[in-house]
Amino acid sequence: MLPWTLLVEYLDSSCDPLFGLLSNQRDIRMTDRRAVRLLLLACAVFLVSAPFTLAQETSHETGTWQSMASAPSMRTEVVGAALGGKVYVMGGFNEPSLTSIMNLAVSDAVEEYDSSTNRWTTKALLPIGLHHAGAASVGGRLYIIGGFTKSLFSVWQPVASVYIYNPETDSWTERAPMPTKRGALAVAELGGKLVAIGGYDGSGNSSAVEVYDPAANSWSTKAPLPTARDHLAVATVGTQIYAIGGRLNRDYARNLAVTESYDSVADRWTRVADLPTPRSGIAAAVVREVIYVFGGEAPEGTFQVTEAYSPGTDRWRTMTPMPTGRHGLASAVVNDRVYVISGGPRPGGSFSNVNEMFVPPSTHTGAREKTRASPTQVGTIMALLAAFGDGGALPAESSPEANRLIKALIQFQAAFMKSTSPAVQRLLTEALTEHLGERAQAAADSFRADGWNSQALEAVVTYVAMHSVWDQPGLEEGLQAYNIGRNDFDLLAQTFLTARATLGARGQDFHTVYASRRRDMPGARSTGP
């Protein structure tokens, strides 16, 4: 083992809380010294893994993806919008079955996704089956506008219908129709009104730009779209609406890159920088005034490409690709996360229930900032290691098990504090609630500020032992983002249980031992376990 002084020279500044302890080792109990040495080794490992950390930071510069709970039904050519912190996916084509073929597979389904629980709920059906519709929310209500429906001989009958959804009553009501019937259009919200743009009217592309006023239940006409097209996407930033990509006359061999900006104050369109990848059947979303464009199709296949447009610079950037290329997909934003749902994985008639969450780079702090732990966060881990030592459960210092145990403590702490995965956060919340009752919220707040303590560790270990948590959608994927998994948790849990049992056999309480050790560690406070 390296001498302490040499090891310290190689340690990253994230281990600063330990340095003061090294010069006063005579004042540290033997088991505490062992905890310090183990954690110092972990800090050295952190330095060795610096290239991996930098690679993570690079991916954060282009956004990250995570798989979420799949939608209940397999669909394509859906439309989606967010309302009240939830995502609604509507209409489209169902995967053909004996049931859906009665409606020529045109769907009237409405499914609601709650990102806070990572769960789906089926809601009231659309009044009619619709595909290639437009949708947006305003004033606490959800609107689905236009689209195609079935007729006697076709599933491509354009409509002008407008339906409004009330989430409080789970019901749909018809409103004043658009002046122009069309499907494969796009709809944006701007200033409390809804703007329906482009599409296909049954004979050709429409350049119509029509604005719906919910308060007056009436429509007005605005300056036409310069490049008439269908299967486009639109996005609102400030007082501007951007019409992006699309195709001519429903032919995906005639995809477009054109992007045009509508100035709602001047009622005027302007050509801006083209979409780098010509495509149609796309989805778009806005996070912090940056437009993100997802998916699409062409004769050669579907697109995984994700591209971002910054109106302030009139420039596009390539983001991290979508894991599952799709067209006819829905997108919606909740809490600066983009949920990209359903759509066809192959050109034409294909279906999926895929739900993938995109975390844009603007919402990430740098990976290097994420690796910095406060003295309190370091001290809690050291105290747990010391308590494990008191319980005779610490692995040998240089063993693979010791390295895995340290990694598990550090990375599970980081995941519970910082992960955007609903499944990961739900595990912590439900474990604390079941174990601590009305004290759970305070415990959760404490964990997210300071990290582990003995009560939180016991709560999570007990909860995992009593529930089938590893079957929960998204949990293992959320933990994989922190390079940990079930085996790491099992080692951590077994170490805790062994130490608790050994101490209990001696008439000692694990939490009392932890509290005693905690007082000697960095960031100590005059608090209990």
Q: Structural class of the secondary elements?
A: alpha+beta
| Total count of strands | 32
Any idea of the CATH class of the largest domain? Mainly Beta
The number of domains = 2
Unreliable stretches: 1-28, 44-59, 364-371
Helix content: 25-40%
Full CATH superfamily name of the largest domain: Kelch-type beta propeller
Round the Cα radius of gyration to an integer and report it.
27 Å
Biggest sheet overview: 4 strands, antiparallel
Q: What coarse outline follows from CA principal-axis ratios? A: elongated
Distance between the termini: 33 Å
**Overall pLDDT score:** 86
Which range does the strand content fall in? Answer: 25-35%
Question: What order do the helices and strands come in, and which of them pair?
Answer:
Blueprint: H1 4-9, H2 16-22, H3 30-48, H4 50-61, E1 64-67, E2 75-76, E3 79-83, E4 86-90, E5 93-94, E6 110-114, E7 119-122, E8 134-138, E9 141-145, E10 148-149, E11 157-158, E12 162-166, E13 171-175, E14 186-190, E15 193-197, E16 209-213, E17 218-221, E18 233-237, E19 240-244, E20 247-248, E21 251-255, E22 259-263, E23 268-272, E24 283-287, E25 290-294, E26 297-298, E27 301-302, E28 306-310, E29 315-318, E30 330-334, E31 337-341, E32 355-359, H5 367-371, H6 375-390, H7 400-418, H8 422-436, H9 440-450, H10 454-466, H11 475-480, H12 486-505, H13 510-518
Antiparallel strand pairs: 1-32, 2-5, 3-4, 4-6, 6-7, 8-9, 9-12, 10-11, 12-13, 14-15, 15-16, 16-17, 18-19, 19-22, 20-21, 22-23, 24-25, 25-28, 26-27, 28-29, 30-31, 31-32
Helix pairs in contact: 3-6, 3-7, 6-12, 6-13, 7-12, 8-9, 8-10
